[in-house]
Amino acid sequence: MLISSLYAQDILFKRVDTPIEIDGVIDDAWSMADSAYNWMQYFPFDSSLAVNQSVAKVLFDDKNIYVLGILYSENVDREYVTPSLRRDFRGAANDNFTVIFDTFQDRTNAFTFGINPFGVRREGLVANGGTGESSFSLDWDNVWRGEAKQYKGYWVAEMAIPLNTLRFNEGQTSWNINFYRIDSESAERSTWAPISRNFTLFNLAALKEASWEEPTKRSGKNLSFIPYISANSGRNFETNTEPNHGFNAGFDIKYGITPGLNLDLTVNPDFSQVEVDQQVTNLDRFEIFFPERRQFFLENADLFSNYGNRGTRPFFSRRIGVSRDESTGQNIESAIPFGARVSGKANDNLRVGILSMQVADDQAASLPSYNYSMVSLQQKVFARSNISAFFVNKQTFQSPEEYSDSLYNAWDRTFGVDYNLASADNRITGKFFYHRNINQVAVDSAFAAGIELQYSVPQWSLEMRSQAVGANYAPEVGFVRRTDIRQLAMTYRRSFFPSQGGIQRHGPGFDFDMVGNDTYGFLDWDVNLLYDIFWKSSARFSFRLRRQYTYLFNGFDPSGTDGLPLPANTEYTNDVIIARYESDERKKLSFNLSTRSGEYFNGTRINLEGSVQWRYQPLGFTSIDFAFNRIRLPRPYNDSNLFLIGPRFDFTFSKKLFWTTFVQYNSQIDNVNINSRLQWRFAPVSDIFLVYTDNYLAEMNPDGFIEFGPSKSRAIVFKMTYWLNL
């Protein structure tokens, strides 16, 4: 009866007439606020009150929502953990206090705002009901205020979140809400609304209701103007061309058409990234997926990017403005003069996404101008499920006579429907989808279809996946790893929760994945025996024994050195050990190690990858990522020793000034990349970047030292962005 009464507690947004000073000091105004107390443990257990209790309070005025967190600790002289003073921290070992707002009460999408004891802030979006780690993104940015202050035995978090930062309907009398806390000293994670430990900490099925003392109202014009200027200078020494200098300027506009529907406009966007993608050793036969991180595409990104599954996406925004010249195999990037997005809630049950990007022609490459457009509709059904439909169109209106035959394609279209399933209690989740791709050359088998189902309770989970991708399914604005396949996969896990000792949970599992087609039969399959161990310290270990089969329908060099390829129409069955260990990240020195070693095609591979990090908080950390692959194949095929080493130095001199240097040596491409970035956040979500990038020819000598050759390319970039709320 006690626990049931605790679950029933809700909270009320009360109005305050005087704006609250955000300084980490509990003012008298908070005495009138309603409180969220009696927090429950989520980790290591989920059946008792939290050991280190917390209290959250909420207030509002015409402009802001105010949130207060009081986070208590049994140890009054403790030290808190932060990776650095950089915004958008993440990790199960970092102290933080976070609030989640489900403003439309659909338990599908939400906003999150968090802060740690050093006053470092983060904001993010939750999609797909918070099912899985990938449903939580910290790439979204917006303007809000937050401060924290440490006291003996507790710390205080204070936030002021502008109402025009959020999307909601006018006249609402309640939202859904939750608060959660990560406490580094005890490795305890706790929530106000209880969440079963087999779900994510940001799961939206478990939210409680927050009532409003007055119905919600729109706050101001909800208009943001975000201009930028950039200048760059670079040179390609391999082609021995003259130095290239450039200047660019443009802007974005964000406008709230309604409190739930947002318009994003961009003029001459700068879609270059000020930090390079992390390099990988590519021993895969298929393309590697790098996620979208550009701000213009992030709000309501799930409306556009979550169709299909991770390996079969009909729309991938990083394809916009990029064309592939099939005659050379090279990608060509074209300028984007302007673009627009409308996204958000049209009413309580309907979400709408409309995108149009105009790409300029490239006369030098003989590439025409293209328009990239997408329409997406998502209708809520039942408690938390939805039916989504989309249409993607890439089209040029220019004459084919003026452009290269290998690059000219008048139009390419993809359309389809997804049913996203989520039960009210989140135990059952899944997806069904069917997509088709068409262009001016009518072909058969240009479809993708799939089904995913997951059932999860604390003691066990079962996931089943199946898909079919036609041989001619090739959306030009999508990401498709493999075509002409039929795939069936299943994963079962059993969990045991010891009542004593240092282990939080452990258990075995079984997994298989089969891929084939009508022409060759089986292309790939693997069968795995699994075992996972999670410690209360937040350390974890996973292990699997795998037997796998591969049929090469094309020639492939598994050494990764462009050597003699294994012949097509050959097959291989291998036994492999796969393991990963992640240490306790609360320690100043932490690490993770993984291996995928054993038989490898017609030879053997010894693999070791990992990262070691030393944290000198709060000023930052130094880490080194590494990957080693020792591949031995019988003659006449190449042996190889592939190294990837990436030291990173991350200094945060304050919450406004950051310096990051990232060095990557990749023996697979004989390259050393240096990326050094100085960032000054001179105003909220407004930055000045100075970025230096250099690429050198390099190789490892017999003594194990890296010898630098001449520079291949070098560039320096200056960029300034300013976020102005009008």
Automatic annotation (TrEMBL):
**What are the TM regions of this chain, as residue ranges?**
none
Q: Where does the DUF5916 domain start and stop, copy by copy?
A: 223-617
List the InterPro entries.
Carb-bd_dom_fam9, DUF5916
In this chain the Carbohydrate-binding domain maps to 22-192
What is the protein named?
Answer: Carbohydrate binding family 9 domain-containing protein
What organism is this sequence from? Algoriphagus limi
Highest classification ranks of the organism: Bacteria, Pseudomonadati, Bacteroidota, Cytophagia, Cytophagales
